[in-house]
Amino acid sequence: MSAITPDDVAHLARLARLELTADELDHYAAQLDVIVSSVARVSEVAADDVPPTSHPLPLVNVTRPDVARPGLGAADALAGAPAVEDDRFRVPRILDQD
Amino acid sequence: MSASTASTKPTSPVPFDEALTRYEPVLGLEVHVELGTESKMFCACPTAFGAEPNTQVCPVCLALPGTLPVINSIAVESIIRMGLALNCTIVEWCRMARKNYFYPDMPKNYQISQYDEPICVDGYLDVVVPLPDGEGTTTVRVGIERVHLEEDTGKLTHAGGATGRIHGADYSLVDYNRAGIPLVEIVTKPITDTGALAPAVAKAYVAELRDIMRGLGVSDVKMEEGSLRCDANVSLNRPGDEWGTRTETKNVNSLRSVERAVRSEIERQAGVLDAGGRITQETRHFHEDTGVTTPGRSKEQAEDYRYFPEPDLVPIAPDAAWVEQLRATIPEQPSIRRARLAQDWGIGAFEMESLVNAGVLQLVETSVEEGVEPDAARKWWAGELLRVANERGVEPQDLPVAPGDIKRVEELIAAGTINDKLARSVFDGIISGEGDADAVVAARGLTVVSDDSALLAAIEQALVDQPDVAEKIRGGKVAAAGAIVGAVMKATRGQADAGKVRTLLLDHLGVAEG
Predict the structure, then answer these.
(1) What gap in Å lies between CA A88 and CA B155, rounded to an integer?
(2) Taking CB atoms and an 8 Å limit, are A94 and B172 in contact across chains?
């Protein structure tokens, strides 16, 4: 039984703004299903007395003082950008036109 | 694109008062407050408003590989103080969460926020709402669902196309200076049973929040600079029915707009419902110029954000003793303080509002605490000192005038050493750095002329200059005395006591006070 369906992949692809063919949806559904079911095995060994954890370190309240430091200059910040205009990152059109 | 034609067919708005006869509004307000910290939420980049694009960015807030966030301690302190001021419970333990979405306003492709573990929960705020037609006020308790910590996003500019809007743009430009500035989101519980007061409640709530944040000193809360932003959720239902579908109106950038946006959305939704349509759950944009809302992008469902606990950060667990220390720093709620002071000073709501709007309430209060009479403190701060501050382009509190100066000036007036007119010159001297009130009086020679012979000489000269007036007074027309008093005041450059001049004049002419 496959837990991840091609429809699930299509939904995720839409959220990630990826365009996938029907073949690709099937292909990734199968791959993702292997990954998800492998990870799901953790729950087989996690007993009720093992709380879910989001961090391996038993720490809380790791903070820094509120002190500002100069960042990168605009030239360095934009150096790796594929497209730049007016010292801003230039990105493709966000919404398709109706 | 929409499958429903009923909800997209244009309908005419229903006039507000009429809409309220058929529908009950339910409000939910989400207010974002940019904290006034020196550095960003998770990195040390500066947070100044108005800097050149992409000059306040670093590998962390640009999401370059290999970087890790570290929480700003003052941001945590600030949000706890905000939660306490809003009567919230501060949780013992909570985590940040990743909100995943693909949009270029965040270079990480996620925003670090909080999801099911907000740091402050279940509070309330009592707001004073003016009733229509000046019929006094009513107090409405607005429940606070949650107050949580997150990071602000970058600023997009849509280029190309005709309108500068996202629709029809050819491409967009991104400035990440704002990305990562600490942001606090305050979410109300549904606000019901407000009826026609709903727009006024929304405005009063945001105004009170703004005053609270300012009093806490956690943010400069400037709506025009976006450091306080309001999203208004509005739905309508017929009395007795379940709540309707809500819309979320964004881009509400002034207190007046909060009121107008809620009002306009009630009128629009009533039109759609009257025509048998359905309200689409969507984000709408408010337009300052036309006062109406238009649809924005349809809202992704909450689960589409695929929230999960942020693995790059450890939990926040505020120490209970520390929270109690912070609780002791929370000032009295602004509306309660204003009501108390108005009563103490014997002034009405209108006078109080003018002090608040002039930005001198704190100065008046401090002066009164230092022993200045409330009327005198109000007179100087809301009058001459405010005028001088405006003239010099500074805030009143930045004038080098201490409460003690006002107290001393008032003593000098009471003693007859100076009058109100000379007092203005004394303040001018103090502000110009010529020393304290006594020093300015001495240096500028500002004492009232109280030497009777000097005043009499001036009176006689004035009578000679205006023989017709002198004749009238001698004939019993005491009202004409003003012209002679005025001439004497002018001759002494304002340094005489007008009442005393008048008495001397009438004595001199042997005329009784009419």
Answers:
(1) 10
(2) yes
Domain with B469 in it: what CATH number? 1.10.10.410
Interstrand relation of B71-72 and A63-64 (parallel, antiparallel or unpaired): parallel
Q: How many CB atoms lie within 10 A of CB B431?
A: 18
What band does B52 get if pLDDT is binned at 50, 70 and 90? very high
Verify whether the Cβ–Cβ distance B316 to A60 is below 8 Å: yes
Is this complex scored with an ipTM above 0.90? no
d(CA B486, CA B481): 9
Chain A residue numbers touching B318 (CB-CB < 8 A): 61
Tell me if chain B has a CB within 8 Å of the CB of A75: no
- Is residue B303 scored above 80 in pLDDT? no
Distances (CA, A) of A78 to A71, B175, B269, B462: 12, 10, 45, 79
B340 and B247 share a domain?
Answer: no
SS3 B465: helix
Q: Which residues contact B256 (CB under 8 A, 6 or more apart)?
A: B203
In a domain, B323, yes or no: no
- Specify the amino acid at residue B396: P
Residue B313, class by beta-carbon neighbours within 10 Å (0-12 exposed, 13-18 middle, 19+ buried)?
A: buried
Pairing of strands B110-113, B155-159: unpaired
Contacts of residue A59, Cβ cutoff 8 Å, sequence gap at least 6: B314
Whole-angstrom distance between the N-terminal and C-terminal Cα of chain B? 86
Which of A64, A87, A96 would best serve as a mutation to test chain B binding (most B beta carbons within 10 A)? A64
Residue A31 pLDDT greater than 90, yes or no: yes
Structural domain including B422 reads 334-444
Instruction: Please tell me the total count of domains within chain B.
Output: 3
Length of chain A: 98
Q: What is the pTM of this model?
A: 0.79
To the nearest whole angstrom, how far is the Cα of A28 from the nearest Cα of chain B? Answer: 19
Share of chain B above pLDDT 70, in %: 94
Residue B472's pLDDT is: 86
Q: Do A57 and B314 touch (CB under 8 A)?
A: yes
SS3 assignment, position B199? helix
The CA distance from B28 to B231, in Å, is: 8
